[in-house]
Amino acid sequence: MSKYVATKQWLNMDWMLEELASSVPQIRNIVLLSSDGLCMAQNGTEGDAADRLAAACAGLQSLSAAIAVEFPHGDGRMKLVVVEVDGGFFYLMAAGAGAYLAVLADADVDAGLVGQRMRDLVARIGQHLSSPPRSDRQLP
């Protein structure tokens, strides 16, 4: 699959994030990313910022997975990370096979509502929020 075709398919997924963005007014940015840090869809974020956020999220996802294996009864996978910083909240949620949903929201957001809406989105369309592993044969 060429890079153009993959990018074109992912851009068509932006619409899936619109409902989440409009349901919680304090949400600033949403990025759907692959586990290796490629932006698959975005809302409220320009291209370079979405790419930077996706790359940073891949690192956080990897770190979270390393921590998750320390729990004896878990499966070692990251489900949800919430980070509070000056000015707002950051959420990273497993969204499908090899995909993650990242949300940046203002400080006055209802934190529970954001988590609930993210879970609702993943439950409804999680099968579409996936990124199959790439192989060398798929590169142009």
Automatic annotation (TrEMBL):
The record's section on SMART domains has: Robl_LC7
A Pfam family of this chain: Robl_LC7
Q: Where is the Roadblock/LAMTOR2 domain?
A: 14-105
* Stored InterPro entries: Mycobact_SerProt_Inhib_Rv3364c, Roadblock/LAMTOR2_dom
Superkingdom of the organism of origin: Bacteria
Signal peptide start-end: none
Q: Which PANTHER family is this protein grouped with?
A: SERINE PROTEASE INHIBITOR RV3364C (PTHR36222:SF1)
Protein name listed in UniProt: Roadblock/LC7 domain-containing protein
Species of the source: Streptomyces olivaceiscleroticus
